[in-house]
UniProtKB/TrEMBL annotation:
Pfam families: HSP70. Keywords: ATP-binding, Nucleotide-binding. The keyword Transport does not apply. Belongs to the heat shock protein 70 family. Coiled coil: none annotated. InterPro entries: ATPase_NBD (IPR043129), HSP70_peptide-bd_sf (IPR029047), Hsp_70_fam (IPR013126). This is Uncharacterized protein. The keyword Cell membrane does not apply.
Length: 142
């Protein structure tokens, strides 16, 4: 979906009181934000609806909420076999979250993984690095 396809943006929750947040969201969408809902009440009603959906005691019309990863996430690691860095995109932009994947690394010794966001231009902050992880206690398997 492109931001041009969005007719209106409604801001709710505690962040709706922060002028800088409102300004950045309005600038991103290129339109005024809608504030027709009570910011706190909308979040509380959404939570109550989600609880009712999950409860066996209530019958609620079919309704789903999907959270997504707003930026693509990749991993990079040193590869002894290829003498350099390898990387792969693990979660593409707008991938459903939460989600887990099983990745297999064929290694005989400890190594470092770095998780990072792919596109610095899309990020609202200057650092693409999510974290570095030292994988230790690697034992060769049959």
């Amino acid at each position: 979906m492109k931001k041009e396809d969005i007719y209106a943006a409604e801001i709710v929750g505690g962040a709706s009181r922060i002028p800088a947040i409102k300004e950045r969201i309005a600038k991103f969408f290129g339109k005024e934000l809608s504030t027709t809902l009570n910011a706190d009440e909308a979040v509380a009603k959404g939570c109550a609806l989600q609880c009712a959906i999950l409860s066996p005691a209530f019958k609620v019309r079919e309704f789903s909420i999907t959270d997504v990863v707003p930026y693509s996430i990749s991993l990079k690691w040193n590869s002894a076999a290829e003498d350099g860095l390898n990387d792969c995109e693990v979660f593409p932009k707008n991938h459903a979250a939460p989600f887990s994947k099983v990745l297999t690394f064929y290694r005989k010794e400890p190594f470092t993984l770095e998780a990072y966001y792919n596109n610095l231009k899309e990020l609202p902050y200057p650092n693409i690095c999510i974290g570095q992880f030292l994988i230790q206690n690697v034992v060769p398997q049959e």
